[in-house]
Amino acid sequence: MALARIGIIGGSGLYKMADLKDVEELEIKTPFGSPSDAVILGTLGTERVAFLARHGRNHTLMPSELPFRANIYGMKQLGVEYLISASAVGSLKAEAKPLDMVIPDQFIDRTKNRVSTFFGEGIVAHIAFGDPICRNLAGVLASAIASLNLPDVTLHRGGTYVCMEGPAFSTKAESHLYRSWGATVIGMTNLPEAKLAREAEIAYATLALVTDYDCWHPDHDSVTVEMIIANLQRNAVNAQKVIQETVRRLSENPPVSDAHSALKYAILTQLDQAPEATKQKLELLLRKYY
Ligand SMILES: CSC[C@H]1O[C@H](OP(=O)(O)O)[C@H](O)[C@@H]1O
Ligand SMILES: Nc1ncnc2[nH]cnc12
């Protein structure tokens, strides 16, 4: 039996969810190591949800140090089918101002040092990733935001999230380059998660919370952590309202998702010929395909 169907990964500024009831802390082990922190199981409304602080509750892990595979596999072990990521981002477009929310539908990969697959060691799979965000989950997120009428917040539906390696922020030349590509926001974390969630057949959507204008904007200072912190707290309050309303809608009406069958035509290896150790490691992902 699933312990939670809905998972939440909280990014910078969202280290806990104040409204969770009947909280349990789970120290999870996966074949890919331990997640960033204990997973917090708790009830939101009538639904059990699983919450994980992406950088740890005291923000001790850099983007390049995140155990992405353990984080996503851990959610899978709990039975998660829908995963909402709340993330701080810099804006690459004038109209997406600090405190606004963006629900991206595309990514550009500028990471250099991330492991973004569960496969290898004798089992090969190539998931389709043309649409990296679950459209239906994103739709529920968007309708939840629209229903809340949050003051000072404009929702931007769709857009491209550039995922950079970090930890240093971009140079101005890079920031202008990403703008010339038409990208909307920039962050350091969501692309590996989206890939791994798709491999784990979990529907994934990003709630991107704008904290700054990166370093391209002629009328704003270049991004600093000091500048970001001023907006993180207001974003975290808004994000929790959005997540609560999204969870309520998902419980009432869980949407279908292509992600839930993403591996159906993705595995190239004949599983009966594959190494036993790898099959065991990936058992949770593969068992419906034997
Ligand atoms: C707050 S400075 C940069 C840091 O913030 C974002 O984190 P997250 O995606 O976990 O909210 C960004 O990706 C960087 O990791
Ligand atoms: N400007 C920025 N670049 C990368 N990640 C960010 N997270 C928040 N703001 C950011």
UniProtKB/TrEMBL annotation:
| Sequence positions that bind phosphate | S12, R54, H55, S87, A88, T189
BP terms from Gene Ontology: L-methionine salvage from methylthioadenosine; purine ribonucleoside salvage
- From the UniProt record, give the pathway where this protein acts: Amino-acid biosynthesis; L-methionine biosynthesis via salvage pathway; S-methyl-5-thio-alpha-D-ribose 1-phosphate from S-methyl-5'-thioadenosine (phosphorylase route): step 1/1
InterPro entries, per the entry: MTAP, Nucleoside_phosphorylase_d, Nucleoside_phosphorylase_sf
Please state the gene responsible for encoding this protein: mtnP
Site note Important for substrate specificity applies to: S170, V225
- Sites binding substrate sit at M188, D212, Y213, D214
Q: Which domain of life is it from?
A: Bacteria
SUPFAM superfamilies, alphabetically? Purine and uridine phosphorylases
User: Which UniProt keywords are listed?
Assistant: Glycosyltransferase, Purine salvage, Transferase
What name does this protein carry? S-methyl-5'-thioadenosine phosphorylase
Q: Which reaction does it catalyse?
A: S-methyl-5'-thioadenosine + phosphate = 5-(methylsulfanyl)-alpha-D-ribose 1-phosphate + adenine
Q: Does the keyword NAD apply?
A: no
Its function?
Catalyzes the reversible phosphorylation of S-methyl-5'-thioadenosine (MTA) to adenine and 5-methylthioribose-1-phosphate. Involved in the breakdown of MTA, a major by-product of polyamine biosynthesis. Responsible for the first step in the methionine salvage pathway after MTA has been generated from S-adenosylmethionine. Has broad substrate specificity with 6-aminopurine nucleosides as preferred substrates.
Q: Which family does it belong to?
A: Belongs to the PNP/MTAP phosphorylase family. MTAP subfamily.
Membrane-traversing stretches: none
* Quaternary organization: Homohexamer. Dimer of a homotrimer.
Establish whether keyword Glycosyltransferase is in the entry: yes
List the GO molecular function terms.
S-methyl-5-thioadenosine phosphorylase activity
Q: Which GO terms describe its cellular component?
A: cytosol
Enzyme Commission (EC) number: 2.4.2.28
Query: Nucleoside phosphorylase domain: from which residue to which, for each copy?
Result: 5-247
